[in-house]
Amino acid sequence: MRTFIVSFIFCFIVVSVNAQTIFGKWNSFDEETKKLESVIEIYKKDGKAYARIFSITDTERQGAICTECKGKKKDKPILGMDILSGLKKKGDEWSGGKILDPKSGKEYKCYIKLLDKNTLKIRGYIGFSMFGRTAIWKRAKE
Fold it and tell me: What are the residue boundaries of the DUF2147 domain, all occurrences included (predicted)?
């Protein structure tokens, strides 16, 4: 009986820890209208966090290109584009990378933090994190 209880507690802890991850699909909302704008997929590569635009809800914008972007992303389709790159885990947040705003083509330093298993805080900023803006993404249903 004791082995069963210990096994049950261990399995519960493993499931709880795995549910608390930034990786997966997240709903991104328009800042003004609060409507679902896109689904972002956060994935791990070489120990760092990256994210790409998985889907765009506005059918008229699904073929949009990033005319304001610089470098390799200039005039490339926004759908499928990596917008978050190179974040490393530091404590309870991921930081040290950049986030791209495909509407303006501007890149910002950023950090992301899981507020709860279904809520992600993204902070993009220039210089210091107090000079920026915050977005909240909600976990998408798979």
Answer: 24-139
Computed over every residue of the chain, the mean pLDDT equals: 88
Give dist(CA 114, CA 87) in Å, integer.
14
Residues 6+ apart with CB under 8 A from 100: 69, 73, 81, 82, 83, 84, 85, 106, 107
Residue 3 has pLDDT above 90, yes or no: no
Write down the CATH number for the domain with range 21-139: 2.40.128.520
Helix (H) / strand (E) element for 5: namely helix 2-19
List, for residues 127-141, the tens digit of each pLDDT value: 877 889 999 999 999
Task: For residues 49-78, give the mean pLDDT.
Answer: 96
d(CA 110, CA 125): 6
